[in-house]
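We modelled the chain as a single entity of 454 amino acids. Its sequence is:
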Amino acid sequence: MGEAALKSHMKSDKHKRESGKSDGCLMIAPIFAKKAATVTATVTCPTAMPPTPQVQAAQVIDPSQNIPTTSTSTQAQSSIKSHVTTEETINAEILWALKVVCSHYSCHDIADHFARMFPDSNIAKKMSCGKDKISYLVSFGLGPYFQDLLKDKLKTVNDGFVLLFDESLNRELNKKQMDMHVRYWDTDKVVTRYYGSAFLGHATAQDMHQKLCENFHFDGKSVVQISMDGPNVNWALFKLLSEDLQKASEKKFVDIGSCGLHTMHNAFRAGLASTGWELGHFFSSLSWLFKDTPARREDFTSLTGSSDFPLEHCQHRWVENVEVAERALKVWPHVKKFIQSLITAKKAINTKSFEHLKGCMDDVLLIAKIESFISIAKVLQPFLKRYQTDAPLLPFMAQDLFNMLRSLLQRFVTPAVFKECTSVTALLSADLSDIKNLLPPGEVDIGFKAKSAV
């Protein structure tokens, strides 16, 4: 903006109207102005004269200084206080921020609600807890405080602690996010606490090891075990951390393998894939046939009278698909009727899910396959539910795994081999590749309902 434009703007009605508003505004300079010092003088008189009382000298004011009167200064200070957040209000905002985090509350326009709920409270009127303020308060105010408390706590843990980490893709940042937790014994219970996160582009073992050393300054002597899932990159990182520990203290981590829950899910998925039944494709096709299609759902209900629909199939936690399989058994007769009606009316749906389900209608063993799937999955479910916890259950894991494996082996190995499997060592020594140790196909236990379906 040039000089001519400024002069033109100064003459405008808008500028005159806005500049006039500043005449009644309180100036902030007088609030922080230093008060003139009060001078006290004592006059000493001759002995014959009575002592002169202490006289307070008049305050000398420089005419060039614009010092406000006492009443104006007091008014200014009282006015500025109304704009400063009090300690009581700050405490209330902190307590509410903690409640938002612990209970996963929303904080959208919550200050307005508090002001209406408690109209007689000055604290509620002054609270301003929008989503941005809560986020900053938790991330940069409370977060560092609690992390310092956690660091101090870990220094006092006598029995050491377990280091847990896992990495996954953060779609917002388009980077891999590695979260770290610590688990330790606190008085009479096991406690798991979030420690922090690191963000990576490349996520090789060396990259992850560098981030751990940069962001988490642990005393290697205090870490007793590393908890992780089982990708090869994590085992490579485990090796690097073990080398660091041996250099620092000539000790070794307690090695109990990777996450048993991941291993169980992956083993079940691999076993199901080896059958060639493609039940995962079947379950997915069922859910996709009615996903986000209100018109198709209405037609299905009108034709079959059923308001039950397939559940969504989980690709990475196969054992948790028991409910999905049970719902598939329930709706499959209705789905076959619906598909047949579309084919008869020449209104077949041109999708992969529809074509796959149409082919499954010719599989006479489909029900038996699903029943067998459910029968085996229910043997694994108790183990997965019990060990999805922070409780110290490691001493019982070996026996629970042994009992579960014996229950599965009993379905397809000969009684002679099963009788010898009385310990973990004997069970692992059983030669399952020898066909002589396996039952004939007709005697394999596929489950009572599956056998009935056959």
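As a brief sanity check on the tokenised model: Residues 131-155 form the longest helix (25 residues). The first strand starts at residue 40 and ends at 41.
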